[in-house]
Amino acid sequence: MKKPITLWQKFGRFLFDNKVILVFALIVFGAIIASGSPISFVVDGIFSRIGRNMFTVLALIIPVVAGMGLNFGIVIGAIAAQIALFCVVYWGLGGIGGMLLAALITTPLAAFFGWLGGKLFNRMKGAEMIAGLILGYFADGLYQLLFLVLIGGVIPVKETSHLIIAGGVGVKNTIDLTGNLKYTIDDVTLLQMLLVALIIAVIMLLVKLVLRGMHKLELTRRDFIPVAVLGVLFGVGQVPFVKEMLSFSKIKLLPAVTIAVIGVILWQVYKIIKKRSQPGFNLTKTIGVIVLAAVLYALTYIKSIEFVLKMVSFPILPFVLIALIWLFNLKILDTRIGQNMRTVGQSQTVATASGIDVDRTRVIAMIISTVLASWGQLIYLQNMGTFSTYGAHLQIGQFAIAALLVGGASVQKATNRQALIGVILFHALFIVAPEAGKMLFGNAMIGEYFRVFVSYGVIALSLAMHAWKLAKKPDDESLPLIGESDSASNHTPVDQRA
User: Is residue 260 pLDDT above 70, yes or no?
Assistant: First the structure.
């Protein structure tokens, strides 16, 4: 009979499971104090970087679930996005239409790159992360060949274009998105979002109509509800005073927190009403969430906190897109392919015995990750407003992976929550490290060097721990990997432990 776990043991386990987060949080807290930066400045910078980088970090989750480790190969997704952006800017297109065209171009291109990457990873099982690094370098070589030699040399272009090097061969070092795609996503208003959502709903309805017509099935009233609701909302949005209310693209943090708290409380109340009789429903936990939300909202009445919340604003659409990919990562695991990915991640041997096509599942995971990474690069570059033609993609893998690991993830386990925590902590250090170095040592570069050391150090430490884990005997079940609980370590893929 097992002894009950004491409170101190639970606390010790909590400290161990979250050691990376806690250590990094202390470093960031110390750097903020040392830098002397106003809290409003730090919070504003964090929200700006969340909107810019979070999407790409979330693109790393699926390959980890599928047992492929940290996807250093997302560089090929970034390359696909940059090719698409070059085409759109070269054609002189911009605005929402230009960004949608860029997404339309990059999606099949990134999917093809992801398919090739997945095929490579299947031939290098157990060494996917090394393969991803090499793949990134190889893809960068082909990318530079395209932009330095083939464009203008083989592919005809306008020599007068401001994107082309004098002489007509090769693309310039920097592509400026000002006047074309800069802040395109950031500046989308609520009314424009309604219009896009309505168009998507109509397209989905037409697709359903065609598919059900092929199977001689009729549409139900439920199929028309999204179009009807969005149509009414968009129509109401055309009323002059309503149109003015919806013609904004950014929101202050204070009303955003208010809306979030109300949404959480209403959702928990809905769960109490609809799901209280279902097995597994935890009423105490649900009420706890409501109380916690109420307490957090009460904190907004503290003057210092209220001041920060009123000072900070952020663009709406990037955070809506982040919420959608967050939901996608959760919901895909409830599908058949998601369950297959989870099984493959736990044990390829068991997956094969269960009739799952392991190689196909891994390729699908790679395609999803690469496509999502390409979309994330579009979000990132439009926010920056310019990008280095030959360098913007090079460190996307390292920075995204470092942020994920800082959040407590590991080579074998990663979640949305860990991605969010990691982005906040990692990029907070980006913001305050130079100022901290300047204040402490009189040189901002010292802080920057420390940040770079931490960025690559956390990756090196995680890979070293992973290698140590694989080198252990199968029956040796000791300490879990960084950010993993005991339960997670007990589910190490069988085929990786020989």
Answer: yes
Would you place residue 482 in the very low, low, confident or very high pLDDT band (cuts 50, 70, 90)? very low
Q: How many whole angstroms separate alpha carbon 422 and alpha carbon 437?
A: 22
For the beta carbon of residue 262, count every other beta carbon within 10 angstroms.
12
Separation CA 56–CA 383 (nearest Å): 13
For residue 297, the number of C-alpha atoms closer than 13 Å in the C-beta half-sphere is 17
| C-alpha separations of 496 from 62, 68, 127, 329 in Å | 18, 11, 10, 24
Give the position of tokens 């916690």: 292
- What are the residues whose beta carbons fall under 8 Å from the beta carbon of 266, sequence distance 6 or more? none
The domain total for the chain is 2
Domain-located, residue 9: no
**Is residue 11 assigned to a domain?**
no
Residues above pLDDT 70, as percent of the chain: 92
Q: Which domain holds residue 212?
A: 189-248
* Model confidence at 494: pLDDT above 60: no
Q: Which of 248, 275, 299 is the last residue of a domain?
A: 248
Helix (H) or strand (E) holding 55: helix 39-58
What tokens were used for 183?
A: 């802040």
> 336-342 long-range CB contacts below 8 Å, 24 or more apart?
337/361, 337/364, 338/65, 341/62, 341/65, 341/66, 341/365, 342/65, 342/66
Q: For residue 297, with 0-12 CB atoms within 10 Å meaning exposed, 13-18 middle and 19 or more buried, which class applies?
A: middle
2 located within any domain = no
Which of 248, 268, 295 corresponds to the end of one domain?
A: 248
Q: What are phi and psi of 315, to 5 degrees?
A: -70, 145
For residues 412 and 198, the answer to whether their CB atoms sit within 8 Å is no
Mean pLDDT value of segment 51-68: 93
Q: 217 lies in a domain?
A: yes
